[in-house]
Every structure is written in C-alpha cells, then in structure tokens.
Amino acid sequence: MSANPIAAILAQYPVMILDGALATELEARGCNLNDSLWSAKVLMEQPELIKAVHYDYFAAGADVATTASYQATFEGFAKRGLNAEQASELMAKAIALAAKARDEFWNSLSAVQQASRPRPLVAASVGPYGAMLADGSEYRGHYGKSEEELMAFHRPRMQVLVDAGADLLACETIPCLTEAQAIARLMPEFPGIAAWISFSCKDEAHNSEGELLSDCVAALESAEQIAAVGINCTAPQFIPALVKAARAATSKPVMVYPNSGESYDPENKCWHGPANSEQFAEQAQQWHQCGASLIGGCCRTSPADIRAVAHWARRP
C-alpha cells in the first residue's frame, strides 16, 4: 500500500470517488441511531449491516469505505461500561468490516472490471472531539481545549485504527483549525500512513468555528502526511465557493463530501426536503470544475448518489 494512496489514485484518475453516508444509510435500513454512540452503536449490535452498506458503496463505484469509527472513542464507550480493551476491539472491528466488504467485492469482479478502477481503500473515520461530546459541538467548535489536550484525546484512538490496518485516516467534520493542527502534529507518530482532514463549514467561507477555510487549509500545507484537505457535512449550496477558496490556498488535493441538501430538524429528529441523485451528481460535476478531485457524500446521501457520481466521473 502506498504511503499516499490518494496520490496513487489521482495519478491514474481525475476523480477519487468517496462513499456516502453510513449512519443515515443504516437508519434507512432500520437502525435506531438516536444514541450518543451513533453508528458506533451498530458495531456492537448489527455489524453485518455495516459491512453490507460498505459493500453497496463499493458496488456503486466508491474508491473508499469510511469506517463506522466516527463516534467510536474510549470516552464514549466507557460511558457504556466498556473497558479500554473492549473499546479497542470495537474500533478494530470497524476496520475489519470495511476491509472484509472491500475484499469480497474486489474478488467478485472480473480481471477486466478490476482493471477499470482502483482497488478500494479503507479509510478509518476519526471524528472530532465534539462528536464524543454528542452535543453538536462538531458544528460549533469553541471547545476551549489546547492543541496538546486535543492531541491527547486523538492519539490512542488513532493508534488503534492504524494498528488495525486502515489504509489511511479520514479526519472529518473538524470544526476548527486548532483541532486540525493537533491531528497534523500527531501524524509523524504514525509513519507510513496518510490522512485527510475535512472541515465542517457554516457558510461559503468559514468553518464551523468561524475561521476562514482558506486560512485553515493553508496552515496545513507543510504537513506532509495530510494527503488531502477539504469540506464535509456542509450544505451543498456552500460548496462551490468553499472549494474555490481551498483550491486557491493549497497545493494539496481538495476533497468535498457534503450533505444531500435535505435539512435536519433537531427538535423532531427528522429530515425534510427532496433527495435527488441526478441533481447531486450534477452538483458534483460543478464541484469538480471548481477544483475538487475527491468527491462523495455525507449525511443523507446514499449508494444511488455515489453511483450517479461514478457514472460521469468514470465514464469510459
């Protein structure tokens, strides 16, 4: 495995196709995720469903599976009475499920089919400190934590995910530069593995904490193991301007995997608005034209959305 598998894929293809939502897709298949552990809860209860979702994204054309470890933390599992060893086993299980789905899918393809696409990757989802709090802090930032404190939070979990065999780390929905810099400072402790860092953003220019996205990606420019930077879990209408701002501020590949465009009602815990895969794919082409080279979806996106993206991104 390349130390920078993103670069290896982009050397052969103009777009690296990311997967879509895991948690909301699990909900669509009957899981109740109204829980502080979110999709990590399903690791304990219905792991076969997680594997099935990963498989379906690969079949739709995704080059990567983002694992069910976003909300998986030692602190979160401890609140459920799990000790560190049990928590580590569940985090490693998230990697194993994605890898098994990848291997089963890849082995189902003919040699001709395998030659037409990259062998998919397993990206270990590393959610922000705010996700562990389970209070929406990943969409606000303002933790009041230092870089060193955030490094201490992320270090043991990243170690488990690396040791479990992830191809790269997906550090996602990061609301502030302080946390991104903490992750970047940690990476040399894990030589030989790359990561991406994607920010949650609140408008066309700023991350969730209110800092300019352009400043954030520029600050990560010298971090050699950060293989891509960008935006996720953000409203699609903000994406073109954000991608342009990021593209102008960094030489790294720019990634984008926004929400579907539906709106979330936190009071009633439900989503409103239409879901349209063709429209999502049309928007994705615009994001690519603006400078994004890694494209997928976040909340409320589905294998149908990724299939629609793959239809134009990998057209022969």
TrEMBL record:
It comes from the Bacteria. Signal peptide: none annotated. Keywords: Metal-binding, Methyltransferase, Transferase, Zinc. InterPro entries: BHMT-like, HCY_dom, HCY_dom_sf, Hcy_S-methyltransferase. Its EC number is 2.1.1.10. PROSITE patterns: HCY. Residues 4-313 form the Hcy-binding domain. Its cofactor is Zn(2+). Zn(2+) binds at residues 233, 298-299. It is an enzyme of class 2 (transferase). GO terms for biological process: methylation. GO terms for molecular function: methyltransferase activity. This is Homocysteine methyltransferase. It comes from Pokkaliibacter plantistimulans. The gene is mmuM.
